[in-house]
Amino acid sequence: MNLDTFDYNLPKELIAQKPHIPPDECRLFVYNKKNKSISHKIFKDIIEFLSPGDLIVLNNTKVIPAKLSAKKESGGSIGILLIEQIEKNTYYCFVKGKIKHDTKINLAKNLKATIIQTNGQKKIIKFDTTNDIREYLYEIGSMPLPPYIKRKNKEFDVLDKQYYQTVFAEIEGSIAAPTASLHFTSNLLDQIKQKGVQIAYITLHVGLGTFKSVETQNIQEHKMHEEYFEISAKTAQIYNKAKLENRNILPVGTTVVRALESASNDKGYIKPTSAKTDIFIYPGYKFKTVNNILTNFHLPKSTLIMLVAALIGIEDTHFCYKKAIEEKYRFFSYGDAFLVI
């Protein structure tokens, strides 16, 4: 299957550069798969599409402020993006700028670190502190926003730390937000619960697997990076009961879909799981756990748009994206929401 199949032209002005405030008043594009109808709502209208007994599954991962500015002791500034923790105070990272093995660097708050491995694209950084570096990240780090969100200075730092994080974020570990969940407010979640809708949580720490670009023209040759996910016994029980009773289950975001599919048996029931997944979902994939999704509008040629196309078809995906562009929806991480029912 050719990578260009998942390409489309997006005017730059439709790439959302900042969050919609309040988040639950962004726009909601609703696509009905059965009759191929489209409706345009605001996000908090999602409650109209939920019924008592329905189950929503959310990803409760928490984004860490993993983007750091540092200076080499020998001089020169570098940028660091923490990717994955190896052990306490030791991380895989990307480094922007020239770096050599065993380079010592200085950070804010008089913190120091050493780049102890420079082989390959991923480096290894070790922080020279007895305390856990995560205690300092919210002071010295910035949110790891995707490169299409432009920040000339730190004027949006406080805003990003609040809005590039879900209101139910709990377990630290992501270097990107599960963006479909950014639209929910605490008040909206309360209203959803009051309607009799159940909410369950999985954890999938968003890493390179989610946002790494596909570089092979034949998409089947693309290799996903592994990402850690966890499904508790409680969530598995709630989900399996809902499935057994044939109730509507709405996964919020591609990360939830990937976690559920990774933990599922052939009949679509899931088991408590704590593992890494490199599942790659593209057209032709047979879903076992879901038949709808709440998501955002994704980058051209990304594994995320491929997952959506696997669910609703390539032609329908392009149809929806074309209509969204015509209606000037906001795209990508801080963009508007896309509900498939």
From TrEMBL:
<comment type="similarity">
    <text>Belongs to the QueA family.</text>
</comment>
<dbReference type="GO" id="GO:0008616">
    <property type="term" value="P:tRNA queuosine(34) biosynthetic process"/>
</dbReference>
<dbReference type="GO" id="GO:0051075">
    <property type="term" value="F:S-adenosylmethionine:tRNA ribosyltransferase-isomerase activity"/>
</dbReference>
<dbReference type="InterPro" id="IPR042119">
    <property type="entry name" value="QueA_dom2"/>
</dbReference>
<dbReference type="Pfam" id="PF02547">
    <property type="entry name" value="Queuosine_synth"/>
</dbReference>
<dbReference type="InterPro" id="IPR036100">
    <property type="entry name" value="QueA_sf"/>
</dbReference>
<dbReference type="InterPro" id="IPR003699">
    <property type="entry name" value="QueA"/>
</dbReference>
<dbReference type="InterPro" id="IPR042118">
    <property type="entry name" value="QueA_dom1"/>
</dbReference>
<keyword id="KW-0949">S-adenosyl-L-methionine</keyword>
<protein>
    <recommendedName>
        <fullName>S-adenosylmethionine:tRNA ribosyltransferase-isomerase</fullName>
        <ecNumber>2.4.99.17</ecNumber>
    </recommendedName>
</protein>
<comment type="subunit">
    <text>Monomer.</text>
</comment>
<keyword id="KW-0671">Queuosine biosynthesis</keyword>
<keyword id="KW-0963">Cytoplasm</keyword>
<comment type="pathway">
    <text>tRNA modification; tRNA-queuosine biosynthesis.</text>
</comment>
<keyword id="KW-0808">Transferase</keyword>
<dbReference type="GO" id="GO:0005737">
    <property type="term" value="C:cytoplasm"/>
</dbReference>
<keyword id="KW-0413">Isomerase</keyword>
<comment type="function">
    <text>Transfers and isomerizes the ribose moiety from AdoMet to the 7-aminomethyl group of 7-deazaguanine (preQ1-tRNA) to give epoxyqueuosine (oQ-tRNA).</text>
</comment>
